[in-house]
Write a structure and sequence with these properties.
mainly alpha, five-stranded parallel beta sheet, two-stranded antiparallel sheet, 5% strand, globular
Length: 751
């Protein structure tokens, strides 16, 4: 029997009869036939539940109603899929949710992990008692080219003992689900005629049985169609007969008429904001809306309350039905130039600092789209058949680069230009240029430049997370090295293939190659990198002892002339795992080795300083800890790492003389500024409380009150019971200090 994900008080009778805030009672009553299977899913061995049905029948409502019955130890990872969704976007979103839910030591451990997937796996391994439920809304919208990676990730996630996955989509081909993954598929129905009529009559509009029959046929009984129809009639103060006459006179299909009539109910800035929701390829929050359109917060509430948009996580999305019907008829609300400028600014920020969770690859794709470019589509359609051809299979090509800029260039000049574009993070354009170089067959065939172009294409597609395309070119290169009997080249390409398998969650395939390389390669640098990857895989499997042994072995292979970045990564990872098992001598030695390489631009330098400082701090070596935190701060400042600067400053506040209030205040204000910029919720809470405490001790209780109230008025559920209790204690102290009358004057809404 599988783990029970439902709360201890979850009652099936309540589940099928009591409409929660998440679901309309009519949708609940209409789908009682599938609700038992949905309820049972979270108690049995099935790993994936598919909620299918036409657009507007209430799939999201049923999903959210079901999720509201999960126990408090369940973490729901919601993601709304769009046509721009990539696996990187999904994982960045999941990481952000998990970071809020988890209390990781001080985030330095997390920062030491390279890939987003590894960070997710690390947090999950730390939350042994928790259960995880990834939820994918609108799965149909993911493009075919991105869907295999996402599905592979879902299947791997579902294999966890403490995980179940929920996929909401119009359809889903169950033939693609692996045999070892058990699932249940449920179809959400249109409203029955009786329930449909009851729902329409609740709005108080004038109806006749004949007109109800006609509306039911037109709307097919879809809940959203019924809802929008009723809202239009109420708003226009017309009868059902008038509504159907207006539809008949419009000459439109019913769905077009319904969407366009409902669209006319909003005006002015509200309509402008909704246009953005319909036209953009991703969800929006207030921050994005204000950044690109200067829209006020009340607009979100208006659109949400009236079913134009809905919220999942931190983002709002347009109603699927309205987007489908209106997208082609709505003009661009914001100029393409303005959107491109916005996306380019977002690319410059780290994922944590961006206005919304989206990967660099997706941002680049949006820029390419608004520049009138298409994503490159030149690799083979079937990697397994790559040996049958020497050149990539291409679809019908669109010219995506200004050819006059490149048409007179030699292949060497084109490859050099592609390298410059690669170094400048313009990966999409680099692919275009390299594709043009490959088209110069008479010049490039038979030359070393062909394989140089393949190698750069493989690296570029890796940066774009187009793993199957990168694998295609690495396969071509491996074949070339076999032909010229270059064993070192063969082994290097096999390592690159193993890395791609690792990133695509084909862990068994990756391990097979890596273990083979450990037995045949004599290249010390390659062996060190192989040990790092094996260590990373061990970390994702929560086997830290094995990971530590691999990192230790990797250090033994390190050649003297190895890149300092590789040395620092190995030294730091070995040190932090030694730190975790209280092997203090090795931890200190390798943190110091990492620091001695003196590459302050490398993130491991600041992390080594910070972790070494924590060790000194824990052993009451305050002066040594202070010096290390100062060095960590300076290194993070060089790298513009806001979280690192916040953390070091927060520790320096604790280590500073309480009498030096001006210095404390300066550090506390800066710490909060960096915490806010880092967009790390726990950091913001900690830094705000610390700043309030410094004001309180200054003493300036009214300024302290401003800081505490900022947190008190935030999301209580997200803030947490412990923090709320601590905050109320501080507010009580301030009320006692400044007096009840003054306090109530300043905070009239305090409970």
């Amino acid at each position: 029997m599988g783990k029970n994900f439902l709360s201890a008080t979850a009652n099936y009778e309540d589940f099928i009869s009591h409409s929660s805030a998440e679901i309309n009672g009519h949708v609940l009553k209409n789908n009682d036939g599938i609700l038992k299977k949905a309820f049972t899913f979270f108690k049995n061995d099935n790993k994936i539940i598919l909620l299918n049905g036409f657009s507007g029948v209430g799939k999201k409502q049923i999903a959210e109603h079901l999720l509201s019955y999960l126990d408090k130890n369940s973490i729901v990872l919601r993601y709304v899929c769009t046509e721009s969704t990539t696996l990187d976007d999904i994982m960045l979103s999941f990481l952000k949710i998990l970071q809020k839910k988890a209390s990781v030591k001080n985030s330095t451990e997390l920062d030491a992990i390279t890939s987003v997937w590894d960070k997710i796996e690390y947090i999950i391994s730390r939350l042994e008692d928790m259960k995880f439920v990834p939820v994918f809304y609108g799965f149909d919208f993911i493009k075919d080219e991105n869907r295999p990676d996402v599905l592979n990730y879902i299947y791997n996630f579902a294999k966890k003992e403490n995980a179940k996955c929920l996929i909401v989509s119009r359809t889903f081909d169950t033939d693609i689900i692996p045999e070892e993954i058990s699932y249940v598929k449920l179809m959400v129905k249109a409203l029955s005629k009786e329930i449909f009529e009851t729902y329409i009559r609740e709005f108080g509009v004038k109806v006749t049985p004949a007109m109800i029959d006609q509306l039911y046929r037109l709307s097919r009984g879809y809940f959203l169609s019924a809802c929008l129809s009723a809202k239009i009639m109420v708003n226009q103060e017309c009868s059902l007969n008038d509504f159907i006459v207006a539809y008949t006179n419009s000459g439109l299909k019913f769905d077009d008429f319904l969407a366009k009539t409902y669209y006319k109910l909003i005006v002015g800035t509200t309509k402008s904001a909704f246009n953005l929701f319909v036209k953009l390829h991703h969800g929006l929050n207030l921050k994005v809306l204000q950044s690109i359109g200067s829209y006020p917060e009340v607009i979100l509430k208006t659109l949400s309350d009236n079913f134009y948009i809905y919220k999942k996580g931190e983002l709002y999305y347009p109603a699927e039905f309205l987007k489908n019907q209106l997208e082609s008829s709505i003009g661009d609300e914001i100029s393409k130039k303005r959107l491109i400028s916005y996306y380019e600014k977002q690319i410059e920020l780290s994922p944590e600092e961006r206005d919304f969770t989206i990967s660099r690859v997706s941002l680049q794709a949006e820029i390419a789209y608004y520049n009138g470019e298409d994503n490159p589509q030149n690799p083979a359609e079937n990697v397994e058949n790559q040996n049958k051809q020497e050149e990539p299979v291409t679809e019908e090509k669109k010219q995506t680069i200004p050819m006059q800029q490149y048409q007179n260039m030699s292949v060497r000049e084109l490859i050099n230009s592609a390298k410059e574009l690669f170094d400048g993070y313009n990966y999409l354009r680099a692919v275009d240029v390299l594709t043009y170089a490959l088209d110069k067959k008479t010049e490039i065939q038979g030359s070393d430049m062909l394989y140089e172009a393949y190698n750069l294409l493989a690296k570029t597609y890796s940066k774009l997370a187009k793993w199957q395309y990168a694998l295609y070119y690495y396969e071509l290169l491996e074949k070339h090295y076999w032909n010229i009997s270059d064993k070192d080249g063969i082994y290097l390409m096999q390592y690159e293939k193993a890395y791609i398998y690792y990133r695509c969650y084909k862990i068994i395939d990756a391990i097979k190659i890596l273990k083979y390389l450990m037995t045949v390669s004599k290249d010390k640098l390659l062996l060190s990198k192989t040990c790092i990857l094996l260590g990373n895989i061990a970390i994702t499997a929560s086997n830290k002892d094995l990971a530590r042994e691999y990192y230790k072995e990797g250090i033994s292979y390190l050649p003297d002339d190895a890149d300092s970045a590789l040395k620092m990564e190995l030294f730091f990872k070995y040190a932090i795992l030694s730190d975790e098992i209280n092997d203090i001598n090795n931890a200190v030695e390798y943190y110091q080795k990492c620091i001695e390489l003196n590459d302050k631009s490398n993130k491991y330098c600041a992390l080594a300083y910070s972790n070494l400082a924590d060790l000194f701090y824990d052993n009451d070596l305050k002066d040594e800890a202070r010096e290390c935190f100062e060095n960590a701060y300076n290194s993070d400042k060089l790298n513009e790492n806001d979280y690192g600067m916040y953390y070091s400053l927060s520790k320096l506040i604790e280590l500073s003389d309480k009498k030096d209030k001006d210095s404390l205040l300066k550090m506390a204000e800066e710490a909060k500024d960096h915490a806010v910029k880092s967009n790390d919720y726990n950091a913001i809470v900690d830094a705000t409380i610390k700043l309030g405490d410094v004001y309180y001790d200054y003493p300036d209780p009214e300024k302290a009150l401003v800081q505490y109230l900022e947190l008190y008025r935030s999301d209580r559920e997200e803030f947490g019971e412990h923090n709320l209790k601590m905050l109320k204690s501080r507010l009580s102290d301030i009320r006692a200090r400044i007096g009840k009358d003054k306090f109530e004057e300043l905070v009239p809404d305090y409970e």
